[in-house]
Amino acid sequence: MPEGRLAFLTGATGFIGSRLTRRLAEEGWRLRCAVRATSDTADLERLGAEIVVGDLLDVDWLAGELAGVDVAFHLAAVYAVGIVDVAAMERTNVGGTRAFLEACERAGVPRAVYVSSTVALGPVVEGEGDENTENVGPFRSHYERTKVEAHRLAVEAQRRGLPVTVVCPAYVYGPGDGGPGAALMADALRGRIPGFPNPPAWFSYVHVDDVAEGIRLAAEVGRAGETYVLSGEHCRVDEYLGRAAALAGRRISRLRFPPALARLSAMVCDGISRATGLRFPLTRENVETGTGWRWLHSHAKATAELGWRPRSLDEGLPETVVWVQRHVLGRR
């Protein structure tokens, strides 16, 4: 491995983590990546990363692997909306974060970065929120609830004096997405979305490469004990998917459903999904999350203190649509 600072990472094989490891390697960092035994580590090995296999809930093991690192990054999380494995989500999102923070304290890590989410900050009634926005519920999904709980653990660790910086990415998109975002875009390109709740929700869309750069900057020039929002261009979800469809030569439905009808339809779809295993674009959780809320937060602090600037959807969306067409829909 090249000489340089040593970074420890969880979630290094994930959507954001894989981009972050590549970015750190480009900057000359040495990498120590904690993975599960079933993880595909080929890309990490090509970067020269040291692969350590273990249980991310094992504080003793984590503390041992954290010895000698310059910065520890915690990205491991389960991101899913709809019919989800609640136990697995709580175990990873909450339990994994608790174990990581405790292990950092035990090992005396000089710097840690926890990757939270603007979901943990919650929606706003009007305008934009910021790093101080508080999500007090009610929660629209199990993912939201678990990220709120994990975020609170990180803030409590900051107050105890742990040198941890928290970053909160907004709605992350880009090539390589294997999660709900790419699935939703694929449904839109297939014409599988019959309509949207009225009114549709607003989200802030940020490219995955910009998020990776923001996390790196938070580690290098961000202040310990602070939180930074990594948001992007604000756009209503139907407009976002409409722009994606237009790039693919398609159109999305213009139908808008009353919230009560959308919720009822989603409950029926959830029941069928549980009985058959079939996946529907309409679920109770995505209806609750996507109806009327403003998931909008300002990245002014990250821009001012980190020098971070995200790209626009015009810059980032075309390559994302091409990737979804090729790798999710199988089109050339």
Description:
The protein has 332 residues and is α/β, with parallel strands linked by helices. It has helices at residues 15-26, 42-46, 59-65, 86-107, 142-159, 180-190, 208-220, 237-247, 259-276, 284-289, 300-306, 313-328, and strands at residues 6-10, 30-35, 50-53, 71-74, 112-115, 164-169, 171-173, 196-197, 202-207, 227-230, 233-236, 256-257, 294-295. The strands form three sheets. The chain has a seven-stranded parallel β-sheet with strand order 3-2-1-4-5-6-10, sandwiched between helices. Strands 7, 9, 11 and 13 form a four-stranded mixed β-sheet that branches. β2, α2 and β3 form a beta-alpha-beta unit. The longest helix has 22 residues, at 86-107. The radius of gyration is 20 Å and the shape is globular. The two termini are 37 Å apart. The mean pLDDT is 96.
Question: Could you name the key traits of this structure?
Answer:
4-stranded mixed β-sheet, 12 helices, alpha/beta
